[in-house]
Amino acid sequence: MAGAPLIVGIGGTIGAVSSTERALRIALDAVEREGYATRLFGGADMARLPLYDPRSPSRTHHEQDFVAAVRQASGLIIASPGYHGSISGVVKNALDLLEETARDARPYLADMPVGLIATAYGWQATGSTIAALRSIVHALRGWPTPFAAAINTQLTKFDESGATTDQAVVDQLCLIGRQVARFAPLVDGKGD
Hints:
The chain is of the alpha/beta class. 41% of the residues lie in helices and 20% in strands. The chain is built from six helices and five strands. It has helices at 19-33, 43-47, 61-72, 89-96, 123-139, 167-187; strands at 6-11, 37-41, 73-81, 113-120, 143-152. Helix 1 crosses helix 6.
């Protein structure tokens, strides 16, 4: 997909590949079927990002790579596990790093479509995590897509290959991917 517009996925947990990262991959696969290139920053990638220090005079190559990818993106999909009723620390740390774009011509996530996914072991944390993600995306000047996926991992299981037998969840994740892909041309000025 050389030359195709880029959609960046951010999400997962530190450690083994998580349900959150598997859900994100399903959404990104749907984006690719719409003709976009994708780049996934999963749990292992976010674990390499040091805690964001706005006073630091330099950034690691992992931080620079992450910020450069978001700067090139026409859209994002953010997936977070629901920890204690909100987003995980590693996802929040990655989003905090976007402060590096504050003085860009397109600061933060300005005018970008952003799909949202929350996973949790129960329903309560999925709703509050989606609400927190929506608030953060608004603060970063992005546009959360109309649909967000809340996945109760007590009910929905992902296998080692990343698949799930819960077709309703697959359909929801694909919808998020399609919505981000369909709104992304507006960022590039091709949807006017």
